[in-house]
Amino acid sequence: MKHTLYLILALAAFLASCQSQENSRQTEPDTIPADTTAAQPPKPPAPDSTYLIVPGESIGKVKVGMYGEALARILGEPDSSDAAMGKALYFWEGEQPAHYVSVFTVTDFGGQVEKPVVQQVQITSPRFLTKDSIGTGKPLSEIRQKYGPLRPLAYFQNAQQQQVYIFDNQAQGIAFEVTLPDSLCSAITVHPKGEDMADIYLPLHPDMTRIK
C-alpha cells in the first residue's frame, strides 16, 4: 500500500513539473525584444553664438540696427574702411586672406539719432553658420532647400575673374553670394528683413550688374 502511495505521489510531481515547463514555453516571446537601452545618436551641438548667423538680425555679436560705435569694442579696430556722405564700409581681415567680416553703416542726418547704424553684415569664413548649418562653402541647391525661393539680385566678377551671383531672401533678411562654375556659396550677408538689398549692396560691389 505504501509503495502504491509513493508511486502516485511521484507520478503527480512528474506531471506537475511537465505542466510547469509547458507553461513557461508558452509565455516565452517569439522574438527577442529590442534593447531599449542602446545608445541613441548624439544631438548636434548648439552653434557657438560667436559664429552664429541669424537672418535679419545678426552675424556673431554684430547686430543689424546696432550703433556703429560698438563695432570697435566687438571686433577691434577695422583693417580698412571707406566712408562718405554718412555711409561707411568697414573690413576686418580673418585668419585667411579670403576670410573677412564687412559691416556697412548709415547715418541718418537730420533724424532723431545722428549716429551710424549697422545696415548689413557680411562674412566669408566657413566658421560662421546658421542654426541649420548653412554657411559658406555650401552648394546653392542645399541653400535653396533651407532658404528658397531666392531672388537673384545681381552678378559681378571677383578677383579671380569668376562670375558671382547674389541671391537674396528678402523676407528673412539674408543674402548669399554664389560663385560659378561650382555654384558654391562664397559670402553670406545679413540685412533688415523685408528690405531690398540692391542699393545696400552697391558699396560692396560697385561694378555689379543688377538683374531686373
TrEMBL record:
**Key word Signal present:** yes
Superkingdom of the source species: Bacteria
Signal peptide from the UniProt entry = 1-22
Swiss-Prot/TrEMBL keywords: Signal
**Which stretches of sequence are listed as region Disordered?**
22-48
Supply the name of the protein: Lipoprotein
Q: Which organism is it from?
A: Pontibacter chinhatensis
Tell me the organism's taxonomic lineage: Bacteria, Pseudomonadati, Bacteroidota, Cytophagia, Cytophagales
